[in-house]
Design brief:
The protein has 389 residues and is α+β, with helices and mostly antiparallel strands. The protein has five helices and 21 strands. The protein has two domains: 192 residues, no CATH class; 96 residues, no CATH class. The termini are far apart.
């Protein structure tokens, strides 16, 4: 009897304890767990979601435009990439960063990116040019960009690195967080607007060389030119999305050597937080290499050019950048001369540049043997037209 009573008592104790724990969990269910990296993980997940929303929005816009173009050209053949779904491989992936003195540094064989620990420093993007290829570029321009609203930042302490190598400035400004990602040949500065009290303007100071200037292009992107109008770097078109993936109106304004992103989030039916993203780079071509490719059935070989664009180049679509990208490619690659093959390869390159992201392409294949044809025919065949010249 005593043992039975003990068991009953023990059961009651366990039941009461479990009830208290359950009640505690219910009371705290709306409160995030209290550990230091929670906000970092929250920001990281928000950025990843915004990238997916942004890609889906772009997919819908391009499909709508292509369908309209198909009617204009009286074409019933769908371009290969019209129905492609967004692939995770097409989304940006931050490069590994490590702390070096008072900065975070991301190093690769092509680029070095320096990210400051505090808003007092600048982000520096530098191209590493091997001596053997130094003739392709007379001088190396290090693009320096400040963090947003540098002068009014209330950030104290040092930035921290999230699990995906995103450098995060938590509570950077009232109602605003900032994150920075080093990509291949470019950098993204992600500004997170947490509520309606966040600013509508975000300023970025840029080291424009003497007699150089910034220029806004038709797609809203920004290019940086020296006094001889040579390309030094640029910003992809401004974009911003809310928590549910709804596009938020945004654009750039140029004020001297300062670039301003305007995010029109007030008096709109948006769901906070909002992620806004200036993405800047200094090069469009990461590498390019000729490879032999067998001709069908005759035992002979022809050549295909394998081009790897920078992550930043895959996000811009202004016609001006198409010409600049081709110019950079011809400087880096031998045997690209002005002939029929080159004309066809140029069309292939432009097609890949403007639409390749829909197929999550990180490498463009330019076929020397492809026939020179119309732009629409190149587009309809997914950029690579079958046949031989």
């Amino acid at each position: 009897m005593i043992k039975r009573n003990n068991k009953v008592a023990l059961s009651l104790i366990l039941l009461v304890t479990s009830s208290n724990l359950f009640a505690t969990d219910l009371n705290q269910s709306s409160t995030p767990p209290d550990f230091p990296d929670y906000k970092l993980e929250q920001i990281t997940k928000l950025i990843q979601a915004s990238d997916i929303h942004r890609s889906e929005n772009r997919q819908k816009e391009f499909n709508k435009k292509l369908r309209k173009d198909m009617k204009t050209y009286n074409s019933y053949a769908k371009p290969k990439f019209l129905t492609k779904e967004i692939s995770k491989s097409s989304l940006p992936h931050a490069k590994k960063v490590q702390k070096v003195n008072d900065t975070f540094v991301s190093k690769s064989d092509k680029y070095n990116t320096t990210i400051p620990l505090t808003p007092t420093g600048d982000i520096i993007l530098k191209e590493i040019m091997p001596k053997a290829k130094a003739r392709f570029k007379k001088s190396i321009y290090n693009l320096r960009v400040s963090l947003p609203n540098k002068e009014s930042s209330t950030f104290t302490g040092h930035a921290k690195v999230g699990k995906d190598n995103t450098v995060i400035y938590k509570d950077y400004q009232e109602n605003t967080d900032v994150a920075v990602q080093a990509l291949s040949g470019s950098v993204r500065i992600l500004t997170i607007l947490n509520d309606a009290n966040a600013p509508t303007e975000y300023t970025y100071d840029i080291n424009i060389p003497t007699d150089g200037h910034m220029k806004k292009l038709e797609d809203g992107s920004i290019t940086i030119l020296d006094k001889n109008k040579n390309f030094l770097g640029g910003f992809a078109p401004a974009w911003a999305v809310d928590k549910n993936g709804k596009k938020v109106p945004t654009h750039y304004e140029i004020r001297g050597n300062t670039l301003v992103q305007i995010v029109e989030h007030l008096s709109l039916n948006v769901t906070y937080p909002i992620v806004a993203d200036p993405n800047f780079g200094i090069n469009m071509i990461r590498k390019a290499k000729w490879r032999r490719w067998p001709k069908a059935g005759n035992g002979w070989y022809d050549y295909r050019l394998y081009v790897t664009p920078t992550a930043w180049a895959r996000g811009i679509h202004a016609k001006w950048y198409g010409g600049e990208g081709w110019k950079q490619l011809t400087r880096k690659v031998s045997y690209l001369t002005n002939n029929r093959a080159t004309t066809a390869m140029r069309n292939q390159y432009l097609c890949h540049l403007y639409f390749g992201w829909l197929q999550a392409k990180t490498e463009y294949h330019l076929e020397q043997w492809s026939p020179s044809t119309s732009w629409w025919n190149t587009l309809r065949h997914g950029c690579n037209v079958p046949g031989h010249i």
